[in-house]
UniProtKB/TrEMBL annotation:
The gene is tyrS. One of its GO terms (cellular component) is cytosol. InterPro entries: aa-tRNA-synth_Ic (IPR002305), Rossmann-like_a/b/a_fold (IPR014729), S4_RNA-bd_sf (IPR036986), Tyr-tRNA-ligase (IPR002307), Tyr-tRNA-ligase_bac-type (IPR024088), Tyr-tRNA-ligase_bac_1 (IPR024107). HAMAP family: Tyr_tRNA_synth_type1. GO terms for biological process: tyrosyl-tRNA aminoacylation. This is Tyrosine--tRNA ligase.
Length: 410
């Protein structure tokens, strides 16, 4: 592992955040000399970011922890276009009202993880619509367009992927990389930003912004990316069979969020503790070394620590208490997801699908046939089983050992 002089790069390196750096020596020296303003951009396509974005948020937290200034750039403008990176189709258009609501909702998570204010290292959140919204088309073409070649833009993986698959890419989306590059240049000019960070899929966009700043203003800028984050089994971080693992409480209950981390693969525990918690590295090494059933204690620590950071102490304690009631005591647990059962009842397969335990009734039937579904600890083998509950009564529905919900008569 490379040793750095700056606390920033040393911390990022030790905890596994660093994949590529445009000029590690130059950035390291800059971080020793001054507080470096650095940013990451987030588009507001939903009311919440998901776990896949958490590593980026934690990088901004590390930036602040080591005496530098984190800048959160919300893509009020770029959300209107859509980043084609990793996508096979155009993004759904959102209204201005939807985007504003999404940004306000997303901010609540950042406020838990970063300290905002007017101080030298206090975090700032800005919206790129503030500078991109008023720039004229001709002005953009003359000022910025001359610094981008079609040859290079066509070579970007995000563009090549769509073209190779013969998937349509609109001219609107094709312009995304120009706007993101302009963001970097604008932030450098107006806020003294010297560093852009992001996932490894953003490397090309980051380099574009650096080159634009150099060509237009002669400014030396830096870029740093994280590794592509996948789980040990090759799955995409933050994706489960039942959908995305959202950071906001309104999109995903605290118990489900806590349980996601508790279900971490044994092989990922140490890596996730480094990336997503503030635990000291020596404590992480101790937890990572646990073997057999003892590794479950480390998973509980991981779930507790991440939930505390993202949802707060109370949510973490409540989620853990629900897990203990559910698994140890056989209780129902207050934080388990709840599904109202109408007076006419509900088929067990439909209940599994409505809860998000299965993606379809067909999958639900398969799980039932495998003997993985229980109602009040009794295995249900009939896919057409009708659950009927009197008003106010409850029953626990389980899929395997880790997915549980409360059915409540209504």
């Amino acid at each position: 592992m490379t040793t750095y002089n700056s606390e920033l790069l040393q911390l990022l390196s030790e905890r596994g955040y660093v994949h590529q750096v445009t000029d590690a020596v130059g950035l390291d020296a800059l971080a020793v000399r001054q507080a470096v303003p650095g940013y990451i951009g987030f588009d507001a396509t939903a009311p919440s970011l998901h776990v896949g974005s958490l590593v980026q948020i934690m990088m901004l937290r590390r930036l602040q922890q080591t005496g530098h200034k984190p800048i959160v750039v919300m893509g009020g403008a770029t959300t209107r276009i859509g980043d084609p990176t990793g996508r096979d189709e155009s993004r759904k258009m959102l209204s201005e009202e939807d985007i504003s609501r999404n940004i306000a909702s997303i901010r609540t998570v950042f406020e838990r993880l970063l300290t905002f204010g007017d101080g030298r290292t206090d975090a700032v959140m800005v919206d790129n619509f503030d500078w991109l919204g008023d720039i004229g088309y001709i002005e953009m073409l003359r000022k910025v367009g001359t610094h981008f070649t079609i040859n290079r833009m066509l070579a970007f993986d995000s563009v090549k992927l769509r073209l190779d698959r013969e998937q349509p890419m609109t001219f609107l989306e094709f312009n995304y990389m120009i706007l993101q590059g302009y963001d970097f240049r604008h932030l450098a000019q107006e806020m003294g930003v010297r560093l852009q960070m992001g996932g490894s899929d953003q490397w090309g966009n980051i380099v574009n912004g650096m080159e634009l700043g150099r060509r237009m203003d002669g400014t030396e800028l830096f870029g740093l990316t994280t590794p592509l984050l996948t789980t040990a089994d090759g799955g995409k971080m933050g994706k489960t069979a039942s959908g995305a693992v959202w950071l906001n409480e309104e999109q995903l209950p605290a118990y489900d969020f806590w349980q996601y981390w508790r279900n971490t693969d044994d092989r990922d525990v140490g890596r996730f503790l480094k990336l997503f918690t503030d635990l000291p590295l020596d404590e992480i090494a101790r937890l990572e070394a646990l073997e057999g059933s003892e590794i479950n204690a480390a998973k509980v620590v991981l779930a507790d620590e991440v939930t505390k950071l993202v949802r707060g102490e109370e949510a973490a304690a409540s989620a853990r208490a629900t897990a203990e009631q559910t698994f140890a005591g056989g209780g129902k647990g207050e934080d388990l997801p709840t599904l109202p059962v109408p007076p006419e009842g509900i088929r067990i397969g439909a209940a599994l699908t409505e809860l998000g335990f299965t993606q379809s009734n067909k999958e639900a039937k398969r799980k039932i046939a495998e003997g993985a579904v229980k109602l009040e600890e009794e295995t249900v083998s009939d896919p057409g089983y009708l659950i009927e509950l009197a008003e106010g009564t409850e029953a626990r529905l389980s899929l395997g050992k880790k997915r549980h919900a409360i059915l409540r008569g209504s």
